[in-house]
């Protein structure tokens, strides 16, 4: 059996689909299973068992001998949430329990970290583990992810294989439920569909023109391919960046969305809200050499390819992956 936590969510539900496509059908999905996510993201998938998040460790105590691998992708991901207790409970302490269980039962583990750990990027975006204790995230979500990365590296007891993945700006199908935390592409599509125009944040940094803020946008289909690779590889434990390796502008994202929809570009700018202006990242780009160095050689979707696939094969018809 393969366990996927956060399985009703965006990335994890795509991973379940990819596992099914590779003929892994004994999937145990762990989540709190809100109706909207379960009915959409998990509908039609081959799943062996549904386990509630709060009962997972009791279930694992009874079934660990049958568990081959754990993907721990469940987390609170709201970057606008500032209640540290929420992140300590769901992102830090729950993850510690997953780690300790994997140590006790010798189960290999891949878990979700985040590029939010890099903060403003003053120390760069290299996934060298020596720099992790020096990072200064810009919000409690990033803190929670970095706190767990630091904790994991400090442990003497480790799963025989483990990997933490610093997800950059992931986009793609199965994020219908995410509301304001969905990708910019998702929101751009819906704005253009409704109004025929798109609004982007104005730059408040003299080094960047309006629309020229840059992110490393990575398509969710690439994310799940890396997860599959690590499950099969099971060597070279550590913390890895997971982005496309190529920063692109929000303007490029917008223009590609208009093109995929067959709509003439019409873009306006509004001030970035003051509530996030001081913590706004103007540039992120994953250094992907570490993952490449252990043998991952698959090409990543370009922004053009990913946006076109996402818009035309999923968003237009409201389809799931």
From TrEMBL:
Cofactor(s) required for function per UniProt = NADP(+)
Pathway the protein acts in: Nucleotide-sugar biosynthesis; ADP-L-glycero-beta-D-manno-heptose biosynthesis; ADP-L-glycero-beta-D-manno-heptose from D-glycero-beta-D-manno-heptose 7-phosphate: step 4/4
Q: Cofactor stoichiometry and binding?
A: Binds 1 NADP(+) per subunit.
Q: Which GO terms describe its molecular function?
A: ADP-glyceromanno-heptose 6-epimerase activity; NADP binding
Q: Which residues form the active site?
A: 141 (proton acceptor), 178 (proton acceptor)
Keyword presence, ATP-binding: no
Tell me which EC number(s) this protein carries.
5.1.3.20
Question: Which residue positions does the secretion signal occupy?
Answer: none
Keywords carried by this UniProt record: Carbohydrate metabolism, Isomerase, NADP
Chain ranges of the NAD-dependent epimerase/dehydratase domain: 2-243
Enzyme class at the top of the EC tree: isomerase
A Pfam family matched by this chain, by name?
Epimerase
Q: Which GO terms describe its biological process?
A: ADP-L-glycero-beta-D-manno-heptose biosynthetic process; carbohydrate metabolic process
User: Which sites bind substrate?
Assistant: 169, 180, 187, 201-204, 215, 280
Q: Does the keyword NADP apply?
A: yes
Q: Which InterPro entries match?
A: Epimerase_deHydtase, Heptose_epim, NAD(P)-bd_dom_sf
Catalytic activities: ADP-D-glycero-beta-D-manno-heptose = ADP-L-glycero-beta-D-manno-heptose
Q: Which amino acids does the record list as binding NADP(+)?
A: 10-11, 31-32, 38, 53, 73-77, 145, 170, 178
What functional role does this protein have?
A: Catalyzes the interconversion between ADP-D-glycero-beta-D-manno-heptose and ADP-L-glycero-beta-D-manno-heptose via an epimerization at carbon 6 of the heptose.
Could you tell me which NCBIfam families the record lists for this protein? Answer: heptose_epim (TIGR02197)
Q: What family name appears in the similarity comment?
A: Belongs to the NAD(P)-dependent epimerase/dehydratase family. HldD subfamily.
- State how it assembles: Homopentamer.
The text the record gives for the protein's domains is: Contains a large N-terminal NADP-binding domain, and a smaller C-terminal substrate-binding domain.
Q: What is this protein called?
A: ADP-L-glycero-D-manno-heptose-6-epimerase
Species in which this protein is naturally found = Pontibacter indicus
What lineage does UniProt assign to this protein's organism? Bacteria, Pseudomonadati, Bacteroidota, Cytophagia, Cytophagales
Gene encoding it?
A: hldD
